[in-house]
Write a structure and sequence with these properties.
- With about 170 residues, the chain is an all-alpha fold.
- The chain has one domain (about 5-160): Up-down Bundle (Ferritin).
- The chain has 5 helices and no strands.
- It has helices at about 5-35, 35-65, 85-110, 115-145, 150-160.
- The chain is elongated and about 55 Å long.
- It binds fe (ii) ion (2 copies).
- One fe (ii) ion binds near residues 20 and 53.
Length: about 170
C-alpha cells in the first residue's frame, strides 16, 4: 500500500514529468522551425525520455496498489529568442525537477516508505545526468555566441542523439 499523502505527491509528479515532456516537445517544434533539426532531434528524444519517467511513476503507483489520477497539463511556452535561451530554460527546468525529486525523497523518508525511497534514488542519480547534459549544451552555445557556423556545428552533433531505451518490464 502507498500512503494517501504519497499517492497525492506522486500523482502530482506524474503531471510534472508529463508537463516536462510537453515543454520539450514545444522546444523541439521551435528549434525545427528555425531550421535547427539537430536541436529539434535532441528535444524530441528528451521529450520521449520524460514520457518514460512518467511511466516509471505510473507503474510504481499502480504496483503499490495506489490510484493513478491524471491531471490537466497547461500549454507550454512556445517561443524563445535563440537556441541558447531554449537550453537555458531547459536547464532551469531540470533544476526544478531535481528540487521536486529531493522534496519527494524528504517526504518518503518522513513516512518511512523504504520502497518509495529506493525507487526515487534512481531519479536522484538520473537528475545529476540530466542537469549535466543540458548544462553541457548551454556551455557550448555560450562559447559560440551568435556565430551561425558554431551553432550549426552543435546542431549537427545533437542530431546524433538516439531514442532512449525503456527499462525492461
Ligand atoms: Fe524527468
Ligand atoms: Fe528531465
Amino acid at each position: 500500500m502507498i500512503a494517501e499523502s504519497l499517492q497525492r505527491d506522486f500523482n502530482q509528479h506524474i503531471q510534472f514529468e508529463m508537463a516536462s515532456s510537453y515543454l520539450y516537445l514545444s522546444m523541439a517544434a521551435w528549434c525545427e522551425q528555425q531550421g535547427l533539426r539537430g536541436f529539434g532531434n535532441w528535444m524530441r528524444q528528451q521529450a520521449e525520455e520524460e514520457r518514460l519517467h512518467v511511466m516509471k511513476f505510473f507503474d510504481f503507483v499502480l504496483d503499490r496498489g495506489g490510484d493513478v489520477r491524471l491531471e490537466a497539463i497547461d500549454a507550454p511556452r512556445h517561443e524563445w529568442e535563440s537556441p541558447l535561451e531554449v537550453f537555458e530554460a531547459a536547464y532551469a527546468h531540470e533544476c526544478e525537477v531535481s528540487r521536486r525529486i529531493n522534496a519527494l525523497v524528504d517526504t518518503v523518508m518522513e513516512v518511512r516508505d523504504h520502497a518509495a525511497n529506493a525507487f526515487l534514488q534512481w531519479f536522484v542519480n538520473e537528475q545529476v545526468e540530466e542537469e549535466a547534459n543540458v548544462s553541457d549544451v548551454v556551455s557550448r552555445l555560450r562559447l559560440v555566441g551568435a556565430d551561425g557556423r558554431g551553432i550549426l556545428l552543435i546542431d549537427q552533433e545533437l542530431s546524433a542523439r538516439t531514442a532512449p531505451i525503456p527499462d525492461p518490464a
